[in-house]
Amino acid sequence: MIIDKKLSRLLENEEPSIQELRNIAKNMGIKLKRSMRKKDIIKVIKNKLLQLKEEGLITDTTNQLSYQMPKISRIDLVENKNELLNENLLVITSVNANWIFAFWNFSKELLKKINKIPENAKMIMRFYDITNKDFPIDEANRIYESINDLREYKSYYFFVPSSNTEYIGEIGYLDYDKNFIPLIRSNKLKMPSDNLNISENIIFYDVKTSKKKKIRKKVNINIIEKIPSIANGNMTLPQLGDRPPISGGGSFVWNLYSLNRGIKK
Amino acid sequence: MNKGKILFVLHSHLPYVRHPDYEEFMEERWLFEAITETYVPLIRMFKNLERKEIDFKLTMSFSPTLIEMLNSIDLQEKYIRYLKKIIELSEKEYEKTKDEELIKHKMADYYKNNFKEILEIFEKEYNKNILNAFKEYEEKGYLELITTSATHAVLPLYSEYPEVIKMQIKYGLETFKKFFGHYPKGFWLPEMGYYEGLDNYLKEFGLEYFFVEKEGLIYGNPYPIYDVYNPVITNSKMFVFSRDKENNIEIFDTESGYLNDPRYREFYRDIGFDRDYEYIKDYIDKSGVRCNTGIKYHKITGKDKELYDKLLYDIDEAYAAVKEDADDFVQKRVNQLRKLNEKYPGLNPVMTYAFDTEFFGHWWYEGIMFLEKVIEYVYNSNNIELKHPQNILSEIEEVQMMTPAKSSWGINGFFEEWINGNNDWIYPAIYEMVEILKKKINKKWNEQEKNIILLMIKELMLAQSSDWAFIISSGTTVEYAVNRIKTHVKRFFELNAMLESGKIEKNKLKYYMWVDKIFDNIDYSDIM
């Protein structure tokens, strides 16, 4: 689990409310008892942080980005939950070449099943690299498994090591014998590429005759690629990368001052 | 030297911010400012160039939401009321600045005349519908007009749903045709968002070309042998142009781009914030919230200057900067062409420059003057020439075939601005709406029920507008963006409940049809 170090600062330097502490614990996958007091919760969180630190899983994001994002809490879009879809849905979509955003919805039937999963069994996500495979899951090139318990979440960001790869995801749990029991399967996702695909085999298309012609041609590449700013996310991927000098989208919300053109009062 | 072809693409888009249930609505000013500072000045630029007998070639994309707003009678009336108020203010300013600095008074005079001229063009020349101007210049052969998806949805985010992709494309094309009388040949991918396979859908709708960001081409398969300097063709026989990203930066870059010249107008210093409240209150938002009026007396002056410390703006001084910058830009293109000629002998390189239209004029006040000068200088150059995509494609005999990569023109070339911890809550709701709609759409419904489904499609598409997620990311008018999404989702579920229960609330239906009056009567039956 990768977690933002500012949490530890919050615990040490500031005076969080019990609700904030409960939220932090929830985000870290810690189950709390109703009767727990503030100092007990802090203790549990600190222990968890210590454990994560020992495992080398805490990433300090403090000095990486200066762009301040507005904080928006999760929003209940529809008041009457009964109107929402009572179906299983697991969607994976690419944020960039290495980050996947996944979100899911469980039907009432599946929720019942999930409630019966033993408490000590983690609900996890698996990603199957199925690039160039006809029988995806069984013949996956590689399988990646998340570490943290997803039971309390409805969405999550995952880092996947290979770009330009096709994935299928599954949410499931590990049983007593460490067998993965899938509960729900996602769509197939092709991740963006961030590699140059150099090939000397070029196909030319003749516009008049509609004929294709294969040629071998040495490709002369001397372009300079920008080093991408890594989306240094924790589980909610709250930060954007460095603001680029050019940006697409929303010409009316272009904020020149967020891009350092002078000083805004 | 082989001639270089320059392709200027201006993408004009605003989200649907029409609020007919309010006499005035703050976000409608986005449209009004765009008309005043960008669209009408562009029309004026066309007139100037035509008068000088300069055969300019520009490609312009109009988003369906913008088309619908520019064609909306109530927005046209509101705009005239808005502009007349600004003219009234500029007249007051003309009097008031008589006792102030000379340059200020000169600028007050300029604004007064400028706004009056804009009113004349808008109201008298084009009868309140400036789409007619763009149509006119298309018919004269100066413009090539294209469009984009219905509500500017970032299409790769919905690649799982061909129905959504087709709906967004089809509603976009139909809206374009309704106003311009023909289908376009090209398509602007919202936020330049592309994914493998999208070309098939575009082809299905009879389109011939689209644009991708540089990442889309250089990370494609295989690498394009001419980099971004020649179109390529996909397996589905769609032509693809790619943006000359690094060289777009010369214009855009907020550190070193032309728009930072200290002589240019300072966007954030506006009399809407500077003048006494009592004086300005009739010209800002009705709620009393101060906002831009479009009358600005200060120049950028320097990055290190606080807003209160900016010096006075002089349009003539700015115009001198425009000429220098335009000349510099064109010179750099000629130098770039020389290098490209060495690297790709035998090729007439295509250099594609694509921008949000509103960047010129609205954000960079002198941007349209800059464009005009660039066009003039290119026209007089022996080495480079302006072209339309169709001119370029008609001259192509052989083209490299390749598959572009998933990409956008956002941060790092991907989708981080539209999916992040602040706005990702949008997508589960939208996907649920799509799932629900998919189930409804194939059933048989009576006319009234069909209308409800049309409304549900409209609510879904309005929620999908890329602007809401982007606004939340950029932290500008976040509350409005959040409310818009919530509103469309809420309405969708209300409509769904009506269909499910059979209890039709006629007044509510009527209201929903009236309040967002777009995409009426588009047949969805062949999509889902």
TrEMBL record, chain A:
InterPro entries: DUF4912. This is DUF4912 domain-containing protein.
From TrEMBL, chain B:
Gene3D superfamilies: Families 57/38 glycoside transferase, middle domain, Glycoside hydrolase 38, N terminal domain. Residues 427-525 form the 1,4-alpha-glucan branching enzyme C-terminal domain. Coiled coil: none annotated. The keyword Lyase does not apply. InterPro entries: 57_glycoside_trans_central (IPR037090), BE_C (IPR015293), Branching_enz_MT3115-like (IPR040042), Glyco_hydro/deAcase_b/a-brl (IPR011330), Glyco_hydro_38_N_sf (IPR027291), Glyco_hydro_57/38_cen_sf (IPR028995), Glyco_hydro_57_N (IPR004300). Keywords: Carbohydrate metabolism. This is DUF1957 domain-containing protein. It comes from Marinitoga aeolica.
